[in-house]
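QA checklist item 7 of 12: single-chain prediction sanity check.
[x] sequence parsed
[x] length recorded as 156
[x] structure emitted
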Amino acid sequence: MEISSASLDDLLSAVAADRPAPGAGAAAAVAVALGAACASKALRISGRRSKDVQLTSIADAAENLALQAAAGAQEHCEDFPDLLAAPHDPRAQRRVRADGEATLDLCQRLRAILDEYGDRVVADLAGDVAAAAHLIDAAESIVTRNLAELGSPGPL
């Protein structure tokens, strides 16, 4: 499945299907993408209204994180079935672990944007900032659990 070009209905059906991917790891990355998109919107509109060029620039950075997270969802969707097919294959384990760690990195980067600039968002867009924060929390929880299930990384 090509996540970035799937309709929402198709994505939901694919996640709900009785096949391994896309699953929770891809869903976590999609949550980060949605959170980053919400943050980007709030920052961009706030920047325009307040004529704050810095917020517009930070909105671009958040949008870039959304695109990276969407690509990460696709990578997880492609890598996870390989792990299920060969659960003791260190290469498959490393790829899935790297996918999760990349998602966590995006969460941290987006959280840093929210921490530094979230209070500059106009009041009527505070819900978008809150949504971004909650989506990050959900993604971090999912990925942390997935990584724990993988166990400690094997030798490179």
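[x] summary fact logged: The chain has a mean pLDDT of 93.
[ ] second reviewer sign-off
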